[in-house]
Amino acid sequence: IFANVPKGPAIEVFALTQAFKDDDNTKKVNLSVGAYRTEEGQPWVLPVVRKTEVGIAQDESINHEYLPVTGLETFTRAATELVLGADSNAIKEKRAFGVQTISGTGAIRVAADFLHRQLKRSTVYYSNPTWENHHKIFVDSGFTNLHSYRYWDQNNRQLDLEGMLADLEQAPAESVIILHACAHNPTGMDPTHEQWKEIANLMERKKLFPLFDSAYQGFASGDPDLDAWAIRYFVDRGFELFVCQSFAKNFGLYCERAGNLTVVQQSSATRDMIHSQLTLIIRANYSNPPAYGVRIVSKVLNTPELRKEWMECIKNMSSRIRQMRKLLRDNLVALGTPGNWDHIVNQIGMFSYTGLDQNQVNVLIKTYHIYLLKTGRINMCGLNTSNVDYVAKAIHAAVTS
Ligand code: PMP
């Protein structure tokens, strides 16, 4: 029965992590992984998360009954408020609601299934480059017209707004446009507020549907309100849209799969219909969502003292990343490495598109045991004060070899 099943291609980021593990060189550095690391190079359980999970474990009133199909309500409400702002008109007018999903990936998948089945959408545009799973998810949801829009200007190592607008101008009305809410993965390059306004103008005129992928709220700048600026701007302008929220990075809850799909409508009258269809999609997929992670997020966001502690944690993570950006750039400048490296400090969030080409990446991996994606994307969290000199010197050698 199984003899003719072809082997699928490896997923680059996981293959690199395995290669890193198998490498016994003592100087090895993993810049490919998509997770936060401390100055000591270790995963970080946010202290507020640890404290909250201990409290939950000791709470005798909590049991393991199923959650509703669309998840824990105290969580979906808090998540929706976090992204839209507690004083959002869309929330006050009951035009916005959330359903719990299997982290950000699950939110995108449920959104794509709904858009295809209920709204008969089959055209999607994502940035070039983007998080590689966008394409896979939309193919699996039945989308047949998948396009990319220009985003990254490799020569100038900045956002190619002109190219982006020109490509979106060609998109047929009703196309789904995936937008990274902040900390664009993989480039780390976000539009400015003025540029977002231009993007919104075009999307409104062309009747394009915004699907915001929000995987880094608070983690990017340290300020959850600032990181949600683009989403709130679109909502204030009256767009109907989806936001796919992940709590993997900003709560460090990667494997617990805490996510939320926020729906913003023009009228509260469509809420029950949309909610019922999302329920059916989830029911047939995995029936009920997991409770562990969302109980933690719910407790923290809904308890003022814990929420304050969480804000300190996200400030801590984002400022360490900014410090690493500066150190890497300053090191490269001090070494006289050819080229301009300012983009490293102008980018935001966990990732940096370094602009290194594939040959240079190969030199870093093979000669220096520094693991990064072939596109030149690095995870800034893989850097710390002990290895940043080594990495900068290796980049210098790769660029000048
Ligand atoms: N979108 C983007 C842009 C991401 O970078 C990620 C995480 N790598 C996700 C969505 C989803 O992650 P998760 O399913 O772990 O929440």
From TrEMBL:
Residues in Aminotransferase class I/classII large domain copies: 26-395
Gene Ontology BP annotations: aspartate biosynthetic process
Single GO cellular component term: cytosol
Family label: Belongs to the class-I pyridoxal-phosphate-dependent aminotransferase family.
Protein name listed in UniProt: Aspartate aminotransferase, cytoplasmic
UniProt organism field: Drosophila grimshawi
GO molecular function, one term: L-aspartate:2-oxoglutarate aminotransferase activity
Catalytic activity: L-cysteine + 2-oxoglutarate = 2-oxo-3-sulfanylpropanoate + L-glutamate; (2S)-2-aminobutanoate + 2-oxoglutarate = 2-oxobutanoate + L-glutamate; L-aspartate + 2-oxoglutarate = oxaloacetate + L-glutamate; 3-sulfino-L-alanine + 2-oxoglutarate = 3-sulfinopyruvate + L-glutamate
Subcellular localization: Cytoplasm
InterPro entries attached to this UniProt entry: Aminotransferase_I/II_large, Asp_trans, PyrdxlP-dep_Trfase, PyrdxlP-dep_Trfase_major, PyrdxlP-dep_Trfase_small
Its EC number(s): 2.6.1.1, 2.6.1.3
Source lineage: Eukaryota, Metazoa, Ecdysozoa, Arthropoda, Hexapoda
Gene that specifies this protein: Dgri\GH21676
Gene3D superfamilies: Aspartate Aminotransferase, domain 1, Type I PLP-dependent aspartate aminotransferase-like (Major domain)
Cofactor: pyridoxal 5'-phosphate
Keyword terms of this UniProt record: Aminotransferase, Cytoplasm, Pyridoxal phosphate, Transferase
Keyword Metal-binding: no
Complex and partners: Homodimer.
Main location: cytoplasm
